[in-house]
Amino acid sequence: MSHAPRHAVALRAVHVLRQPRTWALPTSVVAVVALLLSLLYMGGILNPQADLSRLPVALVSSDEGATVGGTHRNAGDQVVQAITANEDPAVDWQVMSAQEARAALAHDEVFGALEIPAGFTSSLAALAAPGADPARPTITVLTNQAAGSLGSSFASNAAQTAAHQASAKIGAQLTEQASAGADSRPAAATLLLADPVAVVVEPGHALGTHSGAGLSAFYFTLLLVLAGFIGATVVSTAVDGALGYADTEYGPFHSRRPAAPISRAQTFLVKSAISVVLALATSAIVMFATITLLGMDAGHLPLLYAFSVCASAAVALGVHAINTVFGGLGQLVSMFVFIVLALPSSGATVPLEALPSFYRFLSTFEPMRQLSDGVRSILYFNAQATGALPRAWSMIALGTVLAVVGGLVAARFYDRRGLRRLGAPTLVSVPTGAAAAA
After folding, report:
1. What is the pTM for the complete model shown?
2. Domains in the chain, ordered, with CATH?
3. What parts of the sequence cross the membrane (predicted)?
C-alpha cells in the first residue's frame, strides 16, 4: 500500500507566514490595542498635579480670638479669610467647624483638613510680648489616607503650604510690631517671630496597619472585577465546548462535540446562571485569601461578602451580554469596558480631581469607580450609607438589569433573524487530515 508523502499535503510554517491575511489582522489589532493602552493608562497619571482641580479640603478655625492692645482680634479668622481669598483652582477649601470636619473625614467627603486650634490668637499675642518665652502656636494638618493615598498627599501638601504662608504673613506682622517697640530680643526669639507657627501633621481618619496605606480597597475591587471577567471567559469557553460550538483542546488532545440545538438566548441564560453561582464561590475565595490568609483589615464581613458576590456577578453578566452582541470580538470589547477604561478612571489610585476631564466623564458610568467606592466605604468608613455605598449598590443593580435585558434582546434578535452560530456544513462534519489541509 502506498501513501502520499507527508510534505505533499502538510503545510509548512513559511507557507502560512507568506499569506498576509495570516498576520495582518492580529498585527493590526495588537498594534491598535497597544496604542490605546499606552494612551489611556499613561494619559491620566503623567502630570496629576497639573490636572488637579477643586480637591475638597476642610478648613477649620476654632480660635475664639483675644483682646490685644485694647482691640479684639481673631487671627484664626484672618488666616481663614486669607486662604479662601487666594483663589486656587486646585483646592476647594470648605470652611466648617471642627466637628463637621471630623465627620467629613469619617464620611469620605474631604481628602484632608487644616485646623486652627482654640487660643491661637492668645498664643500669638503671648509670643509677641517682650521677654516672653511661651509655647509656639500650632496649626494642625489632618490627612485622610482612606480617601486615597495620593489624594490625601495632595491635600496635605496644599494645607501645609497654606499654613506656612499664613505663618510667614503673621511673622512679618509680629516682627514689625517688635521693631516698633524697640525691645531687645535674643536672636533666637527674633527668628521665632519670623516664622511663629508650627505645622503639625496628624492622621484625621486612622487606618489599620494592614490596609495598604489606603490601597487595599482598590486591589480588592480589582480582584472582584478580574474574578467576574475571567470567570465569565472560562464559563463561556466551557459552555460553548460542551454544546459543540467550540473546540476543546487539552495539550495535544482535541475534541469537538456535535452542536446542540439550542438558541442564543438559552445559551446566554445558561452562561449567566453558571456565572452567578460561580460568583458565590470566587467571592468567598477572595475574602478567605485576603482576609484570613493575608490578614487584610476588614469589617462588616457579611455585607462585604454580599457586595462582592453582586459585584462579581454583575461584571460576569456584562461580559456575557457583550459577547452575545459582538461574538468573538466581545472579549476585546469587554476588556476595554471592564479593565482598560475602568482602571484609569476608577479614582482609586489617582483622585478624580487630579484626572483630565475625559477620565472624569468615564468615571460617571465605568463600573470600577462605583465598585471601588462601595468597597472603600465598607472597609474604611464603617459601611456608612452616606452616598458612596448606596450609589455603588444602585450601579450594580442598574448594570445587572442592563446586562440581562441587553443580552436577551440581542440574542433573541439574532435567533429570530435565523442567524445561527454554526453553518449547516459545520454542523454535519468537520474535515480532517488531507482534506482539511487542502
Report:
1. 0.86
2. 52-203 (3.40.1710), 212-428 (no CATH)
3. 23-46, 217-246, 267-291, 303-325, 332-352, 392-414
